[in-house]
């Protein structure tokens, strides 16, 4: 038999956590046709994978590619790092239904993608306005990776109630409106959507001029509304994804309660996110313990999403999402006109308000609000680059808040600074990524283009694991680490992905373990033609990924995305939840050759 692709002599990881072994994989018609110790060379394309890891394609369980997939469906920034399946519709945001203006206002500010890019894009591209039409539309795109999606609660709430009513305190949906939301949710599930996503975090704000700075529609819903919709999600065995109010943290208990499986069917619930934040060094232990109790004692099924690397952040002036956490920060971001914003920042009353909130340790917080930990990386005045706001405040003999506001008023968004939010301690980070109730993900790919760069999170995770093993202090086997970013996510999310087995879709990564070095942490800025040349923050290391196959087609070679990706034919597909009861063909057991750490 002549195969399309033959991969020889690689260290094969099956995506199920079983021992890896040296062997060959043959691909035919988009499927894995054979896996064995040795397969005769008879293929159109042959890879010698000696010294390489051969893994399933990685799964990114939390992206906001909803807008970018319309402008550039190849989603190359993820594919080049071995991600072959992504999930959209997160955090109550979805572009499946509603007017272009409503959707742009909900999506743009929260995800830090300029509205002047998102709105014209939707006005040009949006031809759908139903669950099936959107699924069919996604499947018609020349996709790079496979794409799955949640149904966003903000989207259906605004569509059903009208945007203004959905954003009004004390206004509940009528019975007729609730029935309509339930119908839309059922239609989405019937079309293969993963489930329902909600958001209760009030510092995620609306864009545009009509309702600017109001929280998203989902945040206005009473929990009874959420529970009623979740009856459908529970009955259908789908997933409830949610953002708790991470500032106050208390309403995470409602998410736990929703998942409980005592006297009823448990609800698959995934929560954003488990982290070791600088602002609270013990919270990750508390949340992890509570989740363990919920899942073991109370028969829940909760999974905490976690970034497997340092969670850092770049900011332009005061234009940064964590400033939405407190009123003075939101007031500044509310002013889109930089001249008006500058006037506000120089106002004495405003400055007192900002300082009072910044220094108040009794206010709930996620951001550490420590200017000792915030370094200037770009500024028209080059003498300021590389210095912290605290350093400069001491020189100026000012309170650090005064220095920060002075500089932001003077330079606007031309002063760029860097800080670390959390996950900066290796011990707690290893605890988090090893936890049985954690799913490795929360990349936010496609959002916060100027602020965050977690597209290559699987590589950063594998580097963490491999470094520990090479140091003689392993905390997770490589096999289990690969499983955590492939088969584990795919199985829990009900996706036909993440496995290397005969009959499975051929989504395969050839990875050079020697390329898992410090370069995977290096920040770069790359212009995005699809968004008017806007600069995106990325981490790239071309030495790590030798090749990526999606649906049996070669999408990446030697770290470079091939020009064919995103063309008229595409590589990936819309991937529905449990699209079919997949019966893998059992491969004959062959002698496995032990594989040492590369």
UniProtKB/TrEMBL annotation:
Domain of life: Bacteria
Pfam families xrefs: Amidohydro_3
Keywords of this entry: Hydrolase
GO-annotated molecular function: hydrolase activity, acting on carbon-nitrogen (but not peptide) bonds, in cyclic amides
Signal peptide interval: none
Descriptive protein name: N-acyl-D-glutamate amidohydrolase
InterPro entries on file: Amidohydro_3, Metal-dep_hydrolase_composite, Metal_Hydrolase, Metallo-dep_Hydrolases_sf
Gene Ontology CC terms: cytosol
Coiled-coil annotated spans: none
Residue stretches making up the Amidohydrolase domain: 45-162
């Amino acid at each position: 038999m002549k195969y399309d692709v033959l991969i020889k002599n690689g260290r094969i990881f099956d995506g199920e956590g079983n021992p890896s072994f040296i062997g060959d994989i043959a691909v035919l018609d988009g499927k894995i046709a054979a896996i064995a110790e040795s397969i005769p060379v008879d293929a159109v394309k042959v890879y010698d994978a000696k010294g390489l890891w051969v893994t399933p394609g990685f799964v990114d369980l939390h992206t906001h590619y909803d807008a970018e997939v319309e402008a550039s469906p190849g989603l190359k920034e993820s594919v080049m790092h071995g991600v072959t399946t992504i999930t959209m519709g997160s955090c109550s945001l979805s572009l499946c239904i509603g007017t272009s203006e409503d959707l742009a206002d909900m999506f743009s500010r929260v995800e830090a993608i300029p509205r002047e890019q998102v709105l014209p894009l939707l006005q040009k591209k949006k031809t759908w306005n139903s669950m099936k039409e959107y699924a069919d539309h996604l499947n018609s795109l020349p996709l790079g990776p496979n794409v799955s999606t949640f149904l966003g609660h903000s989207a259906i709430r605004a569509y059903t109630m009208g945007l203004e009513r959905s954003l009004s305190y004390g206004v509940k949906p009528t019975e007729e409106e609730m029935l309509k939301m339930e119908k839309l949710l059922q239609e989405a599930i019937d079309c293969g959507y993963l489930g329902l996503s909600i958001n209760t975090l009030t510092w995620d704000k609306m864009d545009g001029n009509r309702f600017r700075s109001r929280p998203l529609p989902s945040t206005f819903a009473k929990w009874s509304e959420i529970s009623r919709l979740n009856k459908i999600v529970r009955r259908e065995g789908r997933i409830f994804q949610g953002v708790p109010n991470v500032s106050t943290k208390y309403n995470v208990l409602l998410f736990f309660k929703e998942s409980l499986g005592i006297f009823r069917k448990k609800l698959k619930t995934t929560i954003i996110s488990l982290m070791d934040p600088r602002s609270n060094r013990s919270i990750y232990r508390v949340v992890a313990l509570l989740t363990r109790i919920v899942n073991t004692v109370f028969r829940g099924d909760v999974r905490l999403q976690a970034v497997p690397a340092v969670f850092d952040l770049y900011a332009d002036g005061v234009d940064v999402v964590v400033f939405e956490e407190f009123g003075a920060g939101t007031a500044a971001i509310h002013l889109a006109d930089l001249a008006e914003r500058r006037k506000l920042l120089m106002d004495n009353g405003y400055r007192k308000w900002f300082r009072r909130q910044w220094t108040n340790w009794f206010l709930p917080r996620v951001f550490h609000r420590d200017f000792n930990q915030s370094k200037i990386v770009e500024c028209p005045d080059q003498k300021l680059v590389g210095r912290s706001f605290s350093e400069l405040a001491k020189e100026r003999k000012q309170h650090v808040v005064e220095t920060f506001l002075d500089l932001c008023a003077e330079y606007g968004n031309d002063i760029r600074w860097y800080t670390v939010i959390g996950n900066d301690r290796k011990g707690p980070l290893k605890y988090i990524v090893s936890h049985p109730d954690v799913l490795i993900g929360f990349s936010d790919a496609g959002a916060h283009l100027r602020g965050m760069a977690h597209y290559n999170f699987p590589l950063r995770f594998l580097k963490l694991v491999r470094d520990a093993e090479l140091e003689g202090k392993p905390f997770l086997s490589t096999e289990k680490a690969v499983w955590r970013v492939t088969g584990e996510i795919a199985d829990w999310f009900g996706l036909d992905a993440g496995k290397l087995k005969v009959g499975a879709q051929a989504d395969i990564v050839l990875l050079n373990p020697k390329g898992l070095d410090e370069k995977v942490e290096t920040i770069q800025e790359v212009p995005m033609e699809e968004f008017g040349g806007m600069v995106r923050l990325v981490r790239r290391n071309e030495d790590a990924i030798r090749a990526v196959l999606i649906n049996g087609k070669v999408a990446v070679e030697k770290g470079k995305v091939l020009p064919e990706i995103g063309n008229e034919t595409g590589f990936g597909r819309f991937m529905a939840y449990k699209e079919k009861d997949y019966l893998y063909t059992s491969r004959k057991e062959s002698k496995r050759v032990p594989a040492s750490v590369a």
